[in-house]
TrEMBL record:
The lineage of its organism: Eukaryota, Viridiplantae, Streptophyta, Embryophyta, Tracheophyta. Residues 457-481 are annotated as: Disordered. It is an enzyme of class 2 (transferase). This is ATP-dependent 6-phosphofructokinase. Residues 95-400 form the Phosphofructokinase domain. Pathway: Carbohydrate degradation; glycolysis; D-glyceraldehyde 3-phosphate and glycerone phosphate from D-glucose: step 3/4. Keywords: Allosteric enzyme, ATP-binding, Cytoplasm, Glycolysis, Kinase, Magnesium, Metal-binding, Nucleotide-binding, Transferase. Catalyzes the phosphorylation of D-fructose 6-phosphate to fructose 1,6-bisphosphate by ATP, the first committing step of glycolysis. The record marks G191 as: Important for substrate specificity. The gene is PFK.
Length: 481
């Protein structure tokens, strides 16, 4: 098994281009660890299951659409219970920590890690770290039992508290050692998973028998590799209420406009899916698809056209959309929050004011505009039924992996099958809406909105009689394929 040069990356090359991007195992830095029979084989709840355990060599393909003569591509190790485990039940001292912003489903993941450890593996020592990463050395812990967490999935937020950034890795690992913790479950977004990778590396350097498992969390659905992040379905569903309210307000007055700002700092998935689900939206603006306001083919022209056609319209805008348009007036453009995220101006308020100013100064049309920002209402609600099931699978996959001795990994579904994924694959980039993909085309068809960038490219090309520098490279690439 060859090492890729990165401590958390193991590569196995097979025939026909097969590549397994494996995750670390405790035996990589602590050889000759004893193994134990998996307690699941004696668990009455699993007695009806034909095959208790996942085959040790099972993998999940990252891409399922391949050409017959093409390589088999990248695979990840399949998640699930193994026949042999590397911890005895009464030896395990686990801890759970939540970091970053709130997201529907956090409490469900906490609950199912605790209940999974108790009911599947007989583990009775589980600690909750209060207040994010800094809680390891600056806050109290909470003893977690199935009784304590029984109803927490019905509440929003996280019972453990959370924080952003600013932690001391050495102090965290010191705390893990001092408390005798040997399984660490870390729930958070890409910044949190980067922190988890650093914690894992320090644990490996000290040669501790401690498994580090990550559960990826972001309401924006911008984590790569995995099919989707937990809380996303709930966010899209809750966004419907805001869009419906905007639609009611808009159609109840002459030339009514409803503007709804949804989450999505760099990725417009919530805005796109909420728009597609609603069918009441006339225009969806996301960070990945540039737009402009004035002139031929601009947003103002489209608003006027749609108001003349329907008498009202609804605009959905992701929080990261249009930031380039207002960057000149934004003094905090280069400022960041504690997690290193760029501070964004409220594009919804700015856009609403620009629309009002335009129609009051330059048009004869009187408009009535209502602005709705449901951001924190969406983040704070409990997860829906679909996300509750999904959170259960994520939690159980993490527990199975840690008990089997895997470490330095994050869990998630890849093409519908849960897998163990190296930390660096989760943190290397952000998942974004591909505006040359069919899903964005479906949205444009649903809203009948123009592709604003294409309109500007066309007008500039016509004026200059040469290709525009605004042409999207992805479009060119797709044309050649």
């Amino acid at each position: 098994m060859a090492d890729s040069g990165e401590s958390q990356m193991k590569i196995v090359n097979g025939e026909a281009g097969y590549v397994l991007e494996d995750v670390p195992h405790l035996t990589d830095h602590i050889p000759d660890l004893p193994t134990y029979p998996n307690p699941l084989q004696d668990n009455p709840a699993y007695s009806a299951v034909r095959q208790y355990f996942v085959n040790v060599d099972d993998t999940v393909a990252q891409k399922i659409v391949v050409h017959k003569d093409g390589p088999r591509g990248t695979h990840f190790r399949r998640a699930g219970p193994r026949q042999k485990v590397y911890f005895e039940s009464d030896e395990v001292h686990a801890c759970i920590v939540t970091c970053g912003g709130l997201c529907p489903g956090l409490n469900t993941v906490i609950r199912e890690i605790v209940c999974g450890l108790y009911h599947m593996y007989g583990v009775t020592k589980v600690l909750g770290i209060d207040g994010g990463y800094r809680g390891f050395y600056s806050k109290n812990t909470i003893s977690l039992t199935p009784k304590f967490v029984n109803d927490i999935h019905k509440r929003g937020g996280t019972i453990l508290g959370t924080s952003r950034g600013g932690h001391d890795t050495s102090k965290i690992v010191d705390s893990i050692q001092d408390r005798g913790i040997n399984q660490v479950y870390i729930i958070g977004g890409d910044g949190t998973q980067k922190g988890a990778a650093v914690i894992y590396e320090e644990i490996q350097r000290r040669e501790l028998k401690v498994a580090v498992a990550g559960i990826p969390k972001t309401i924006d659905n911008d984590i790569p590799v995995i099919d989707k992040s937990f809380g996303f379905d709930t966010a899209v569903e809750e966004a419907q209420r805001a869009i419906n309210a905007a639609h009611v307000e808009a159609e109840s007055t002459e030339n009514g406009i409803g503007v709804v700002k949804l989450m999505g700092r760099y990725s417009g998935f919530i805005a796109m899916y909420a728009t597609l689900a609603s069918r009441d939206v006339d225009c969806c603006l996301i960070p990945e698809s540039p737009f402009y306001l004035e002139g031929q083919g601009g947003l103002f022209e489209f608003i006027e056209k749609r108001l003349k056609e329907n008498g009202h319209m609804v605009i959905v805008i992701a929080e990261g959309a249009g930031q380039d348009l207002l960057s000149k007036s934004l003094e905090s453009m280069d400022q960041q929050d504690a997690s290193g995220n760029k501070l964004l101006q409220d594009v919804g308020l700015w856009m609403s004011q620009r629309i009002k100013d335009h129609f009051s100064k330059e048009q004869k049309m009187n408009i009535t505009l209502k602005y709705i920002d449901p951001t924190y209402m969406i983040r704070a609600i409990p997860s829906n039924a679909s996300d509750n099931v999904y959170c259960t699978l994520l939690a159980h996959s993490a527990v199975h992996g840690a008990m089997a001795g895997y470490t330095g990994f994050t869990v998630g579904p890849v093409n519908g099958r849960h897998a163990y994924i190296p930390f660096n694959r989760i943190t290397e980039k952000q998942n974004k809406v591909v505006i040359t993909d069919r899903m964005w085309a479906r949205l444009l068809s649903s809203t009948d909105q123009p592709s604003f960038l294409s309109a500007r490219v066309a007008s500039k090309a016509k004026a200059q009689k040469e290709p525009s520098t605004l042409s999207d490279g992805n479009n060119l690439k797709e044309t050649k394929q």
